[in-house]
Write a structure and sequence with these properties.
Strand order of the largest sheet of chain A: 10-9-11-8-12
CATH architecture of the largest domain in chain A: 3-Layer(aba) Sandwich
Strand content of chain A: 15-25%
Order of helices and strands of chain A: HHEEEHEHEHEEEEHEHEHEEEHHHHHH
Oligomer: heterodimer
Strand content of chain B: under 5%
CATH architecture of the largest domain in chain B: Orthogonal Bundle
Structural class of chain B: mainly alpha
Number of helices of chain B: 16
Radius of gyration of chain A: 22 Å
CATH topology of the largest domain in chain B: MetI-like fold
Largest interface: A-B, 62 and 65 residues
Helix content of chain A: 25-40%
Structural class of chain A: alpha/beta
Order of helices and strands of chain B: HHHHHHEHHEHHHHHHHH
Number of helices of chain A: 14
Distance between the termini of chain B: 62 Å
CATH class of the largest domain in chain A: Alpha Beta
């Protein structure tokens, strides 16, 4: 008899399917909610708390976009995706954007037909070993057993690195970071390799972090950023410039603390254009004039998001490094708001 | 002459058995120390049990229940016992147990899944304990499939009511058309009229009634479902639907009608030949690509359908085993009594075949219930999926065993109850000598 539920819902689904798809921006506005794909949980980047409220660095991007488009940072439906389901979820339209520490690669951009709208974190693959092993360079790892997550770019990078250096290794395949931690601590592998941010977060949870060292080699480029589907450039622009607004805000000294004061007008024309008191940038995007102000107020500018979720004062304790503003010697750089 | 007699005329009083044969000592001698090999094995076993318990008991009971994070747990352990090893940090369960049970279901609405669970017990009682519970409770069983989704998902009460009315429509058509048109045509007419009701009229009917008499619960999105509640929801639906579907498939497979037979064989063999996880990926990924863009076919519903289909195929084979175990004489006896196909199935074949299959059916149920945890792989937050989410919190990153111990306990309680019930049912239905 429970088949009735299925039939009924099929009917509803069939009727709902009749609604035609317009541009994503219009869809999101009509729905009143942004469907944002995030990970099922990665320390510092996305995690639900005890009340089911999502928080993290990637989550901050989702909330900023929701604030810019809908004026409400809480108007986000977080859709947890795994490494295997994320791209199909985006391609099929289940989610409007994916902010899930996804590496921007040629094949994902070109072959899978996605548009990476920017980079919110420059990562790279590193190695962690117990300090008692006395290894000081990844090139000394000949014959080591390595815990490696399957189905990720890190697996391919690892093979490339060892082949290029003509040394051998024995992979211990693992499925999740949590499994990797356990295997590594149990001694199932000599080395644990994943993105350096993940290694730092993992090491911070150990009982004795000092007994483990991160090797100096970073063997890959992992630019992580939000992405959207091919074919809707207008929507891609909205995400791209929301991210750029957060970055520019940090560069110009606009923070969630002073954005209210600055939006009443400043002497800096770029700040005025960003916050909508001069020019009509918001209108060009199809958003309201104060879109960037709303995005910044959602969780702060880029630097604030970084400090709050993964920065040096958090247990993860990542330094800005490559992710400092270009003015401070990093790679974070936004095109001008003009 | 004196009365000499060499035959004892009275019985000796019974003596107490030797102390070594009765009581605790006797039991020990008989069961644990009945020979030197057994004595050695007993001692070794006791040592092994002691070894396990001496680790487990401090782990479980010398533990931290109140802390904000794993590091705080470790500090408390160091302060109390001087070591962080061998002590559990149950604080994570203390903080997150509601989330592990209910997922992201709104806390102020927790009464709804709880009420659904209580009603489930009421709905199952007349089926599971038919000899002790009044059969009047069957009315709860009949309406439960409509109440449960309404309680869980919320929304207007008229939706489930109008879907239930579809069954009434079909039943009425069947009842009145049988005399006029014959059984087969009446059956087809009933199914068609019910489908017409659901597809064309049910929505209008529900909408109209909703406008006149709005009565709705706050609706809850499928994305908010999670935790152990999701496992129970998927398990109950899959178990409840797979038994009838499995019976039909098993009968279809033995049918003399070639098309029915081959349809059933193909379905069973196809589903059994594919791992459940593949079906789940089809449900979560492939369907999205084939459905028109913008369509919203609920993810939990998709998963329910796939898990049910999977369980049905296995159930069909278990029941076919029961059917095959019946002697031919039972079928021939039913025929000789002049019973038609459905009568003989209902009165003679199925009661016996199902009774033989009980252990197989219940182990399939248990398997399906545990398989529901696979949905974590497609990104649903069931209990296993939630462990990833909880570990992604900086406060709890690195915690592992405590979460899984809690989940194991939840599953053990449910699965062990099912297994005990099946043993009870076997005893009750035992008619052998």
């Amino acid at each position: 008899m429970k088949k009735s539920v299925i039939f009924g819902a099929l009917t509803v689904a069939g009727l709902a399917a009749g609604a035609a798809a317009a541009g994503t921006l219009d869809d999101v506005k009509a729905r009143g909610k942004l469907n944002c794909g995030v990970t099922t949980g990665l320390v510092g980047f996305a995690a639900p708390d005890a009340n089911g409220k999502w928080d993290g660095f990637d989550v901050g991007v989702c909330r900023a976009v929701a604030a810019a488009v809908l004026g409400d940072p809480a108007a986000v439906e977080f859709v947890p995706t795994t490494g295997k389901t994320r791209f199909t979820a985006l391609a099929s339209g289940e989610i409007d954007m994916l902010a899930r520490n996804t590496t921007w690669t040629f094949s994902r951009d070109v072959d899978l037909k996605f548009t990476f709208v920017g980079v919110n974190y420059y990562d790279g693959q590193g190695f962690m070993v117990p300090s008692e092993l006395g290894v000081s360079s990844a090139k000394d790892l000949d014959g080591a057993t390595v815990c490696i997550q399957t189905g990720t770019t890190t697996e391919l990078n690892l093979a490339d690195f060892f082949r290029a250096n003509n040394i051998s290794y024995e992979p211990v395949p693992i499925e999740t970071n949590a499994e990797g931690q356990q295997q590594y601590l149990a001694g199932a592998c000599d080395v644990y390799t994943t993105d350096a941010s993940g290694l730092a977060a993992t090491r911070a949870t150990f009982e004795d972090p000092g007994a483990h060292v991160l090797l100096p080699e970073i063997i890959s480029k992992e630019p992580l950023g939000p992405l959207v589907r091919h074919g809707d450039d207008n929507w891609g622009d909205v995400i791209r410039w929301t991210l750029n607004a957060l970055i520019t805000a940090e560069e110009l000294g606009v923070s969630s603390a002073n954005v209210g004061e600055m939006s009443s007008g400043t002497n800096n024309p770029e700040v005025n254009r960003l916050l909508g008191t001069e020019g009509n940038l918001g209108e060009m995007l199809g958003l309201s004039a104060d879109w960037a102000k709303a995005a910044i107020m959602a969780g702060g500018n880029y630097g604030e998001l970084f400090e709050k979720n993964i920065g040096e004062n958090t247990p993860i304790g990542l330094a800005r490094g490559l992710n400092a503003q270009w003015t401070d010697g990093g790679l974070i750089y936004s095109p001008p708001f003009r | 002459m004196s009365d000499l007699s060499f035959v004892r005329t009275e019985m000796l009083p019974e003596q107490a058995p030797p102390a070594s044969e009765i009581g605790v000592v006797g039991w020990l001698r008989h069961n644990l120390f009945s020979g030197w090999i057994n004595s050695i094995l007993t001692v070794i076993s006791l040592l092994a049990i002691y070894g396990v318990l001496s680790v487990l008991i401090p782990y479980v009971f010398q533990s931290v229940w109140n802390a904000e994070s794993l590091n705080e747990c470790r500090e408390i352990m160091l302060a109390n016992w001087g070591s962080t090893h061998g002590h559990a940090c149950w604080a994570v369960i203390n903080e997150r147990w509601l989330q592990l049970l209910f997922g992201f279901y709104p806390p102020e609405l927790y009464w709804r899944p709880i009420l659904a669970l209580v009603l489930l017990v009421a709905a199952l009682a007349p089926i599971l304990f038919a000899d002790r519970v009044s059969s009047k409770l069957l009315i709860v069983t009949a309406i439960y499939p409509f109440i449960m989704p309404w309680l869980m998902w919320g929304g207007s009460v008229w939706g489930p009511v109008s879907i239930a009315l579809g069954f009434v429509v079909g039943f009425m058509v069947l009842k009145y058309a049988t005399n006029a048109m014959g059984e087969l045509i009446a059956l087809i007419a009933a199914v068609v009229s019910a489908l017409i009701w659901w597809v064309l009229l049910a929505g209008v009917f529900a909408g109209a009634l909703d406008a006149i008499l709005p009565f709705a619960l706050e609706s809850v999105q499928s994305r908010q479902f999670g935790g152990f509640m999701l496992a129970i929801l998927l398990g109950v639906v899959a178990i409840g639907c797979s038994l009838p579907i499995g019976i039909v498939l098993a009968l279809g497979r033995q049918s003399h009608l070639p098309i029915v037979k081959w349809l059933c064989v193909c379905f069973i063999e196809f589903i059994r030949g594919v791992p459940l996880i593949t079906l789940l990926f089809v449900a979560s990924l492939l369907l999205n690509i084939f459905l028109p863009p913008g369509s919203n076919f609920d993810i939990i519903l998709r998963v329910m359908i796939m898990v049910t289909l999977f369980a049905s195929a296995y159930m069909a084979e278990v029941i076919r085993g029961g059917l095959a175990a019946l002697p031919r004489g039972q079928y021939e006896g039913a025929d000789s009594l002049g019973l038609d196909y459905w009568q003989s199935q209902r009165l003679i074949i199925m009661p016996q075949a199902l009774k033989i299959s009980i252990p197989g059916i219940v182990s399939t149920f248990i398997g399906v219930f545990k398989d529901t945890t696979l949905v974590s792989i497609i990104g649903l937050f069931d209990v296993i999926g939630l462990t990833h989410a909880i570990r992604a919190d900086t406060a709890w990153n690195g915690i592992y065993w405590e979460l899984f111990a809690f989940i194991a306990l939840l599953f053990f309680v449910v699965c062990f109850s099912m297994s005990r019930y099946s043993m009870y049912l076997e005893r009750r239905l035992k008619t052998g000598h």
